[in-house]
Design goal:
Layout: E1 2-5, H1 13-26, E2 30-33, H2 46-59, E3 62-64, E4 72-76, E5 84-88, H3 95-106, E6 113-119, H4 129-142, E7 146-153, E8 162-169, E9 177-179, E10 185-195, H5 199-220, E11 229-235, E12 242-251, E13 255-261, H6 268-285, H7 291-304, E14 307-311, H8 316-328, E15 331-337, E16 343-349
Parallel strand pairs: 1-2, 5-6, 9-14, 10-11
Antiparallel strand pairs: 2-4, 3-4, 6-8, 7-8, 10-12, 12-13, 14-16, 15-16
Helix pairs in contact: 1-2, 1-3, 1-8, 2-3, 4-7, 5-6, 7-8
Amino acid sequence: MLTLDGSLGEGGGQILRTALGLSLVTGLEFRIEKIRANRQKPGLQRQHLAAVQAAAAIGQAEVEGAEINSQQLAFHPRGVAPGDYAFAVGTAGSATLVFQTILPALMIAAKPSALVLEGGTHNPLAPPYEFLAKAFLPLVNRMGPNVRAKLDRHGFYPAGGGKMRMTIEPVTRLARLDLLDRGKLLGLRATAIIASLPYHVAERELKVLKRELSNHLRHSSPATRPPTLDPQALEVKSHGTGNALVVEVECASLTEVFVSFGELGVKAEVVAGRLAKDVRRFLEAGVAVGKHLADQILLPMALAGGGAFVTFPLSPHALTNIEVLKQFLPIEVRIEAANDLGVRVELTPNP
């Protein structure tokens, strides 16, 4: 049985989620101690417990320590059972993180699966639905499986109550994926999502994005017809108020997604300005993959036995994720400078 230190590196919940996902894939049992030791509220919170329960159901596992605030957990998988499942976080905790915990095993399982997940779909501390659907899953699907996502209801923090459906048609082996060049910039799409908020909030956000990003697009392509920014406001029904500002950066090789969330007491112009800065930084750096996508694509590439991508210098979150991957899989990760602003990350088998 593997023993993991939950205080490793950035010491957050990703250590547990990565370990659960890889335990399901490899069949290796593990024990984790000091769960989320570096967080203000250490131990299992509701969304982490939901991930444990989902993994236990998928893996027919025996679990010890699966309770709120527990800082120790033992996980004994007995074999992946694909099929139809429904999981509810019960709070605004991220349903997308629960999904990412069990996806690795289900996308290489023996049979298809269908999932219904309820909870937070738009949480500032987790990948929002649009990131999964437009950035992450298209890359996963290029590796062989066919994973489709549908959003039934938005769930914003702190009310939650979101609902999404996933269908997974697996493959027996994942294909290698290389993301070294994002290719030509084709266009940008900006969506201001609001729930139970005045419409002018969305209008003000889009106005800032259009000004900041259109200027950048014109200056970056002075000799040719520049890519365009397509803005839209989207009013949705939700269990509570919410605001998410989304920019999809469509390139020839992939689509990246950047999100900024509205906050009580923070002006719409500030929310949009933060997002514009993130998008401009990505465009100017010339990297293929943003920092969040870099973190998420590591595990699928490791399961495929290799892959490479160019991104920003890796975050502590990603570096911690790599250390957990290496404890379950025979994989080596090499990181070297790609240019002044980015690094090349390559995963290779470790015989």
